[in-house]
Design goal:
Layout lengths: L8 E5 L1 H11 L1 H17 L10 E4 L4 E8 L3 E9 L13 E7 L5 E6 L1 H19 L6 E5 L5 H12 L3 E5 L3 H11 L5 E4 L3 H5 L4 E4 L20 E4 L12 H6 E5 L2 H7 L12 E2 H5 L12 E5 L4 H15 L6 E4 L10 H7 L3
Parallel strand pairs: 1-6, 7-8, 7-10, 8-9, 10-11, 11-14, 12-13, 12-14
Antiparallel strand pairs: 1-15, 2-3, 3-4, 4-5, 5-6
Bound molecules: nicotinamide-adenine-dinucleotide.
Nicotinamide-adenine-dinucleotide binds next to helix 3.
Length: 348
């Protein structure tokens, strides 16, 4: 057996180590920090390579690759979306990702991203709400109480000062699970038995359901003036959560229009439907919320730059910790051109 040189090694963060890292930092602190990393990258948006994610669809789900680069580092995430999975004891969304050095092309981090996707999606939602939700918003309807729901709620608490969450899921067991998990965080948690009940008195409405088809979680007549809608679950062709009428009455904010027009709520609208790019609001070039009557809608699908920010965050925060192991991932022959010789010698 040969001992790999340090050049062969890539830090790897397992699910177990990711969870230990989250606990050591504290989940609310980590959500706030992640939102700052995402916000910093949205402020330098124009610098990044951007492409709609590469999606491979099947009858039951989707598998996607999400690459981007800021010219110094390159990152990608592998992620799936399979709404039928939970009925088979599997998760709807799982992910892993990699960060590499553009100068050498060598990976510098390989990590689980199932936990990290839930954290970065929630941090991004709360960052958007900070700019778009009405002033003083402290109550959120959380419709869809699955894997992402507690993360979404805690990010809104940590970043926007949420005090009350009103839960609804078509499966009461999911609501029970979510309420139980949120019990220790000092929030007022209300279990609701319909979407209509969940949105009562809420200034932020989050939809985070999973279905492989167009659903109408919120109908037009449910939406009054002045709310902020955080639409998370509609993120694939043929998979939406909102009635089209809501989009017509809202100012719609998106991540990357070429991807959102394929995957987001606005897939229901004409190609030239007006949207504002969130990075333009964050960098001060466009207005977010204008007044307290406006309906704002963050049509979130999840974009590669958010994963890049999360990868950067993990790279920066595992340094000097025990929350990773080194993987022998890269062949490192003594003579860089003698890869074959390295193979032959390994059999000696
Ligand atoms: N925008 C993003 O960046 C992003 C990131 C991650 C996940 N997502 C999407 O968010 C959605 C939720 O992901 P998850 O991991 O929490 O999935 P999940 O399967 O764990 O949870 C989804 C929940 O929605 C509920 N639900 C389904 N239809 C409903 C309806 N009509 N009314 C009320 N509840 C309903 C289900 O019972 C389930 O509890 C998925 O569609 C996923 O693709 C988006």
């Amino acid at each position: 057996m040969t001992t790999p040189s340090h050049k062969a090694l890539v830090p790897f963060v397992s699910v177990d180590n990711m969870m230990r890292l989250v606990h050591s930092i504290g989940i609310e602190t980590m959500l706030r920090d992640l939102a700052e990393y995402v916000e910093a990258d949205f402020k330098r948006w124009e610098l990044f390579d951007k492409t709609p994610r590469v999606a491979s669809h099947s009858d039951v789900g989707v598998i996607e690759l999400m690459p981007t680069s800021d010219g110094e580092a390159y990152g990608f995430k592998y992620v799936n979306g399979h709404p039928k999975n939970t009925s088979e004891g599997l998760q709807t969304v799982t992910a892993f990702g990699l960060l590499a050095d553009v100068y050498t092309g060598y990976p510098v981090l390989f990590t689980e991203m199932t936990m990290l996707t839930a954290l970065r999606t929630a941090a991004t939602s709360a960052m958007a709400a900070k700019y778009l939700a009405p002033k003083g918003a402290d109550t959120m309807a959380m419709i869809g109480n699955g894997a992402q729901s507690e993360f979404q709620t805690l990010a809104m608490k940590a970043i926007c000062g949420l005090k009350t969450v009103r839960l609804f899921d078509k499966d009461p067991a999911a609501t029970e699970k979510c309420a139980r998990n949120l019990g220790a965080f000092g929030l007022n948690v209300v279990r609701c038995s319909s979407p209509e009940e969940a949105i009562e008195g809420a200034q932020i409405l989050t939809t985070c359901t999973a279905d492989k088809q167009n659903a109408t979680i919120l109908t037009d007549n449910m939406i009054g003036a002045g709310v902020h809608i955080n639409a998370i679950g509609g993120d694939c062709p043929g998979k939406t959560e909102l009635a089209a009428g809501i989009l017509n009455r809202s100012d719609v904010f998106v991540e990357f229009p070429p991807q959102t027009r394929i995957e987001g709520e606005i897939q229901q609208m004409p190609e030239d439907f007006a949207v504002t790019e969130l990075w333009e609001v964050i960098s001060g070039q466009k207005q977010g919320r204008r007044d307290d009557k406006q309906i704002t809608l963050f049509d979130s699908v999840g974009f590669a730059i958010e994963d890049f920010s999360a990868l950067r965050y993990i790279r920066d925060h595992i340094k000097g910790t025990e929350f990773f192991i080194d993987l022998d991932m890269l062949a490192d022959p003594d003579d860089p051109r003698d890869l074959f010789g390295m193979l032959q010698r390994s059999d000696a």
